[in-house]
Design the sequence.
């Protein structure tokens, strides 16, 4: 059973639905597994808890 973990900033629920569908479809196409076996975990990190290039993303 494939388990996919996605770490990202907060997104709208409609965007996450689409992402989960597309990631699932990719695994079904690539591995030939049933969609029911694909799990997608979205871990959302707030902008004040994420940094890049020496700065919090909240400060950009």
Sequence:
């Amino acid at each position: 059973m494939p388990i996919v973990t996605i770490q990202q900033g907060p997104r709208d629920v409609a965007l996450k639905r689409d992402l989960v569908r597309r990631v699932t479809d990719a695994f079904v196409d690539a591995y030939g597994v049933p969609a029911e076996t694909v799990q997608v975990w979205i871990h959302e990190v707030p902008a004040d808890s994420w940094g890049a290039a020496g700065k919090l993303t909240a400060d950009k």
Remarks:
- The CA atoms of residues 18 and 24 lie 10 Å apart.
- The chain has a mean pLDDT of 96.
- Helices lie at 13-31.
